[in-house]
Amino acid sequence: MATTDTIFQHGTLGLLVPGLFDGTITAKELLTHGDNGIGTLNGLDGEVIILDGHAYQAREDGQVSEIGPDESLPFASVHFQKPDVSAPLSQLSQAAFEEKVVADYRLTNVFAAIRIDGTFSYVKTRVAPRQQPPYKTLVEATATQPEFEGHAVQGSIIGYYAPHLFQGATVGGFHLHFLSADHQLGGHLLGFDIDQATLKVQHFANFKVHLPIDNEAYLQERFDNAAIDSAINKAER
Ligand SMILES: [Zn+2]
């Protein structure tokens, strides 16, 4: 039976920092661990948005398509959706939203999934550009990346809040992706203003990390925690 009290994460955000971009889990396997979530594809090829059992890729050319079962991902987080909070939101900036949600739903020290469906007066996303081996570092790979904007867009925000203690294993704080209802705009969320929407929050007692222990590059890497923290703040915010 599907467990709804656990985030399943494949890989770590930290492994992307030195450029370990090879896909190490298939989309098919990932979707057995959750029906909503976020990630990136093999070669850091775009941004992954998983909604209601369907995984989508937003590419650097601005196109969005559904991901095939055999495509692979170096990093992804998923969960089975069963929100414990559902609340209407209207006329809220990103900053006001983040402050309100952390306070109202006591997120500071917990893992939570955030999903917001509705109309956004403004959305700004970015999409990581596809890399070829030998891979550059995450900061180099994302130094120039396309950004996309929309006004009066209908769509869904999906992602997570994680305690700052877990920065490196994942992104400490909010990590949100967006997909418009017409699939014309997607990516890693850089900014948004909510017009009218429904917020769903799901708190998790469990954070499960699944590591690519058969991947030679992963086994050989010597991670530098300070570099990882700085790179996540540069590349993921
Ligand atoms: Zn992201």
Automatic annotation (TrEMBL):
In terms of Pfam families, this protein maps to:
AAL_decarboxy (PF03306)
Pathway(s) annotated for this protein in UniProt: Polyol metabolism; (R,R)-butane-2,3-diol biosynthesis; (R,R)-butane-2,3-diol from pyruvate: step 2/3
| MF term (GO), any | acetolactate decarboxylase activity
The EC number(s) this enzyme carries = 4.1.1.5
Instruction: State whether keyword Ribonucleoprotein applies.
Output: no
Record-linked InterPro entries: Acetolactate_a_deCO2ase
Catalysed reactions, as listed in the record: (2S)-2-acetolactate + H(+) = (R)-acetoin + CO2
Q: Which UniProt keywords apply?
A: Acetoin biosynthesis, Decarboxylase, Lyase
Query: Is Transmembrane helix set as a keyword in this record?
Result: no
Its family?
Belongs to the alpha-acetolactate decarboxylase family.
Q: Which PANTHER family match?
A: ALPHA-ACETOLACTATE DECARBOXYLASE
| Name of this chain's protein | Alpha-acetolactate decarboxylase
Please give the organism.
Answer: Lactiplantibacillus plajomi
